[in-house]
Structure formats: structure tokens, C-alpha cells
Write a structure and sequence with these properties.
single chain, 2 strands, 6 helices, mainly alpha
């Protein structure tokens, strides 16, 4: 399986970010930071009925770490790369959907519409994840 350097660099950025943010989810600070995002999301808010605030954050974190590991393995094992890429697509679509589900996420500041810009990184990550799926699928 041939990979171009640009693709591997982009994939490395996605993998490192998933691992880094995944690890951070195990901290009480991050658990509280993501709480309003998860609580306001219609597909995720039910998690707090089953798990604690830290438990939900840990679950999300371990998912991100497992997906990152799968994407690393997927460089050499296309089947794992395919499924890990699809899981990453779901993660990034869910994150981007916070732009639609979090109350007051859009504001006007000095006449300019602004939002939580850190979420927009996931648009690029979504593209890389989808590229990973497409590249892996051709070797299945």
C-alpha cells in the first residue's frame, strides 16, 4: 500500500490530536469542559443517565485513543484502517454537530459572526478521516 508523504503528515496530525485530546479526557478539567457540549447534544446527552461526568469523558477519551491506534495500524492493515477511518468520521461529524446543538455557540462580536473556532479543526480532520476510508477501501 503506497502512501504519499502529505497524506501521512495529515494522518499523523489527526492521530496525534486524537491521542492527545483522548488522554486529556481523563482529567476532571476536560470532563467539565465537554459537559455542556455533551449535555446539549440529542444523541449524546443520555450518557449522563448511565455514567458520571468523568465516566462519560473517559468513555469518549478511550474511544478517541482506540480509533487513533486503529488508524496507525490501518497504515499497514487496510481493513483496520477502513473501520478506524469510519469511526473517526463519526467522531468528527459528532464534534462538528456541536455547532448546531450547543445553545449560544454562535455570537456576534463587533459585527462579525463568531463561534467556537476550535471545533472547525474537525472539518479538516473529517476530510483526512474520509480520505483514510477511501484509501483503505481500495485495498480490501
Amino acid at each position: 500500500m503506497k502512501h504519499e508523504k502529505g497524506y501521512l503528515i495529515a494522518l499523523s496530525g489527526v492521530i496525534l490530536t486524537l491521542v492527545w485530546i483522548g488522554i486529556f479526557k481523563f482529567t476532571p478539567t476536560e470532563a467539565e469542559v465537554i459537559r455542556p457540549l455533551v449535555e446539549s447534544h440529542p444523541l449524546m446527552n443520555w450518557l449522563y443517565a448511565i455514567f458520571s461526568v468523568q465516566g462519560v469523558s473517559n468513555l469518549i477519551g478511550i474511544t478517541e485513543i482506540i480509533v487513533a491506534i486503529g488508524m496507525i495500524v490501518g497504515i499497514w492493515k487496510p481493513k483496520i484502517g477502513y473501520w478506524s477511518g469510519l469511526a473517526a468520521v463519526v467522531i468528527f461529524v459528532m464534534t462538528l454537530s456541536f455547532l448546531l446543538t450547543v445553545p449560544n455557540v454562535w455570537k456576534v462580536v463587533d459585527g462579525v459572526i463568531v463561534t467556537e473556532f476550535f471545533i472547525f479543526k474537525d472539518l479538516v480532520f473529517l476530510g483526512v478521516a474520509w480520505l483514510s476510508v477511501e484509501r483503505s477501501r481500495q485495498y480490501l
